[in-house]
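Hey, quick one: can you model this chain's 3D structure?
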Amino acid sequence: MIVALRKNISALKKDREHGAGWLTRRALEILREAASLDPAESSEKLLSSLNGVVSALIRSRPSMVSIANYALYYQGEIESAAATSRSPQRLKKAAFSVADRLLRRQGKSAASASRNAAALVGKRSIVMICSYSSAVCNALELARRGGKNFKVLAVQSRYKKVSYGDMALRRLQQSGISGMIVPDNQIIWQAARADLVLCGADGVSLHGWLINGTPSLELAQTALRKKRPFYAVCETSKIDARGLTAGLPEPEPGFDLVPLEMLSGLVTEKGMMKPAEIYKFTVDDLMGSMSDRPY
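Sure thing. Here's the predicted structure for all 295 residues.
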């Protein structure tokens, strides 16, 4: 593998400052770079090299399902292109085009999911969030631009030396959104003030749980006890219809497994999905979500 690509994949693996959406885009950018930089002199060698990049990206963040889903879709597309092209240059062009198309698709899907979530925010809501999610931040920024004057309670979500709640609140405050940090040990009594709870997602398993940064599980349990609506905001590309996470013994350090039954719903680019609907999601549905059809 080209040294520059190996370094970029290593940086993606170590990144603890960005959410799954941003990291998925970075993975697709790496695939686009791979198509441009590879010096292979035959289609066979180029295909083998690109497949190696796909495998390395999937291994880099195994609980971030959207990286794997997009990478595997990309792999299928370039393998189909390789079957009809013996020219490495033509295959490079096709591989670059696929990666570029998926980048646009991911951007549109993320924007649509955030738009749908923004509609849940009331004009005078108190919204509780945890961890750091670009999808949630985008939704709240859209709601603010729409004239809604709400407040945010950002659970500190501290893991090692990083406070992800502080990261989220700093971003939101730059958009004129007021709020406060809730220490992790005050979730239970502070949640009573909220009328809406939002989180992002790294992955959604059909085995019955959502993967997201800690303390998502405690927040979900609290929301359920206090009868507060609790929604996860994410694109359908984060649903593990392939069973990729089934063999994982546990999530990455700093992440929680939240039972799907604790969710009021999953807010996607296609609209709201109830927990029971998530179990019916198939690979065919996943491929459809990655097409160029407008929503």
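One thing worth noting: The longest strand covers residues 151-155.
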